[in-house]
Specification:
CATH architecture: Sandwich
Largest sheet: 15 strands, mixed
Order of helices and strands: EEEEEEEEEEEEHEEE
Number of domains: 1
Number of helices: 1
CATH class: Mainly Beta
Strand content: over 45%
Number of strands: 15
Structural class: mainly beta
Shape: globular
Length: 228
């Protein structure tokens, strides 16, 4: 939902009872807002994969479900922390506190993740001025499920709908930003993206439009309200 023509988008993360397997049942997702990742940068190719994200929470975990109607799918990276943005990739960036840094959770179509905690996104070569890359132990307890196998290579050409879900224990963010307290009623900054830098048809799309070919622009993040 958007408050005005030039306003940043906002969404509500609705609360559900804790699911037994840390993944909401299929019917639970119907209650979630549909976040359309459809603001494509002009540098993109003519490929415009329809991509949505749904978010839910249970007071302790943030649950997400990306759905992508794709056509050119490539997924090569399989190790935690690999540059998955080069593959067919979906991303969610979270900034819990306005005076702290943000997290970039990036997932390729096969379910491999890369994340950093970034406090100064000014570019220094291919990286950032101030950041800390997550190690596997930082993500202990985070669950990821993907509909595709870990590797899709060579690129699969043709209509293909794939999905990826995650269950993020919010406590994993606290070593970086401090205690977060009860989630209901909070407002975080957030953006969500679809990209595929090294596919045959590269593209860059956002939920909250970015004003440069750069996803690391906190000024462009939308608002994420935690429901009770």
């Amino acid at each position: 939902m958007i408050a005005g023509a030039n306003a940043l988008p906002e969404t509500v993360v609705r609360q559900i009872p804790p699911p037994p397997q840390l993944q909401p049942p299929e019917d639970a997702w119907a209650a979630a807002d549909i976040i359309q990742i459809a603001a494509f940068r002009p540098e993109s190719s003519d490929h415009r994969p329809a991509t949505t994200l749904r978010l839910l929470h249970d007071g302790e975990h943030l649950y997400g479900r990306f759905t992508v109607q794709d056509y050119y799918v490539r997924s090569r990276h399989t190790q935690f922390g690999d540059p998955v943005y080069r593959d067919s990739c979906v991303e969610i960036f979270l900034q819990p506190r306005p005076d702290r840094g943000y997290f970039n959770f990036e997932f390729n179509a096969g379910g491999t993740m890369m994340c950093c905690y970034i406090t100064n996104p000014e570019r220094v070569g291919a990286t950032f001025k101030e950041y800390r890359k997550w190690r596997p132990e930082d993500a202990r307890g985070l669950q990821i499920h993907a509909s595709l196998p870990p590797v899709v290579e060579p690129e699969q050409v043709g209509p293909l709908t794939w999905w990826l879900t995650f269950a993020l224990p919010v406590r994993l963010l606290e070593p970086f930003v401090g205690p977060l307290g009860p989630l209901a009623g909070q407002c975080w900054r957030m953006n969500a993206y679809k990209c595929g830098n090294e596919t045959s048809h590269p593209h860059w799309a956002a939920w909250a439009p970015v004003d440069a070919l750069n996803f690391h622009l906190p000024r462009c993040f939308g608002k994420m309200h935690w429901g009770g």
